[in-house]
Amino acid sequence: MTQCDRCHTEARVTIVSKFNTDVICPDCKDDETQAPGHAHAAEVEEAHVRSGDCSFAGVGLSAEDLSFLAARRAARGEVKHDGAV
Q1: How confident is the model at residue 1 (pLDDT cuts 50, 70, 90)?
Q2: CA angle 61-64-27, nearest 5°?
Q3: Which residues contact 14 (CB under 8 A, 6 or more apart)?
Q4: In the list 58, 65, 69, 85, which could disulfide-bond 20, CB 3.0-4.6 Å?
């Protein structure tokens, strides 16, 4: 199994984030699709892939997106391996 780069849980199924190269679990992917910057990140990624750039590293996570995703993980009661939410 692979560990999710966001919530650090073990996951049998993973996907790469639209924002960056994080490998994430289905729960974190669901959270990501609702993040404020997701539509923009998906559009930029699609444009890069269509132009032949299949190794685009993503647009990155804004402070707003990071805060949103942390709040979603906290709402699920997930705690990072270092004890932080």
Answers
A1: confident
A2: 65
A3: 2, 4, 23, 24, 25
A4: 58
Q: Map out the domains of the chain as residue ranges.
A: 2-75
Closest among 35, 69, 23, 55 to 12, alpha carbons compared: 23
Q: What residues contact 71, with CB distance under 8 A and at least 6 apart?
A: none
Can you read off the two tokens belonging to residue 26?
């289905």
| Residue whose tokens read 């992917």 | 29
- Which of helix, strand or coil describes residue 3? strand
The two three-digit tokens of residue 28, written as one number: 């974190």
- Over residues 14-26, the mean pLDDT reads 97
**pLDDT value of residue 15:** 96
